[in-house]
Amino acid sequence: MTIAKEGETIQVHSYKHNGKIHRVWQETVVLKGTRNIVIGANERTLVTESDGRTWLTREPSICYFHAEHWFNIICMLREDGVYYYINMSSPFVYDNKSLKYIDYDLDVKVFPDMSYMILDEDEYAEHRKQMGYPDVIDQILQKNLDTLLGWIKQRRGPFASDFIEVWTSRYEFYKQVKKSK
């Protein structure tokens, strides 16, 4: 498997269980790339929806993807603090300068005070029937949701107090490198 290289710009592709493209983020800078973890950053990047609509992200974001966990975490840096949006998803694969995963509808929103809300349970139930998610996928997602909620409560991974500072600093470095070219 190829590995995303630090400093390179990649796309992020989200698919649905039926193999159809869901959403594409045009530019994400890789801050860390290993076989198991990709940490990226973007701001004001173009996002294309499956129906062709486009929009720009509003704020800088640090994105955390893992090859063993069934979720990815978007840390949105806003004036009043860091908000987290978590997609319950397949582990990522990296192919042809694109990071790819399957979005399984269920989401979690975490607020700066670390309170959280589980979102889109109805969408998950509907798509589970429509696309025929097997029971094993449901079991994996529920187990990984429990893992994620543990990370939030224990301030692990992207929820750790120094995570944002470390990766925002790295992102600023790469932005300066890009400007000097």
TrEMBL record:
Protein origin, superkingdom: Bacteria
State its Enzyme Commission number(s). 3.6.1.15, 3.6.1.6
Task: Quote the protein name from its UniProt record.
Answer: Nucleoside triphosphate/diphosphate phosphatase
Active site location: 23
UniProt binding sites for Mg(2+) 1: 87, 103, 107
Q: What class of enzyme is it?
A: hydrolase
Output the Gene3D superfamilies linked to this UniProt entry. Answer: FomD-like
Protein purpose: Has nucleoside phosphatase activity towards nucleoside triphosphates and nucleoside diphosphates.
Which coenzyme or cofactor does it need? Mg(2+)
Among the Pfam families in the record, one is DUF402
Reactions catalysed, semicolon-separated, are: a ribonucleoside 5'-diphosphate + H2O = a ribonucleoside 5'-phosphate + phosphate + H(+); a ribonucleoside 5'-triphosphate + H2O = a ribonucleoside 5'-diphosphate + phosphate + H(+)
Question: Which residues are listed for Mg(2+) 2 binding in this entry?
Answer: 105, 107, 120, 123
Q: Which UniProt keywords apply?
A: Hydrolase, Magnesium, Metal-binding
Can you give the residue ranges of the DUF402 domain? 18-156
Positions of transmembrane segments: none
Q: Does the keyword ATP-binding apply?
A: no
Annotated family: Belongs to the Ntdp family.
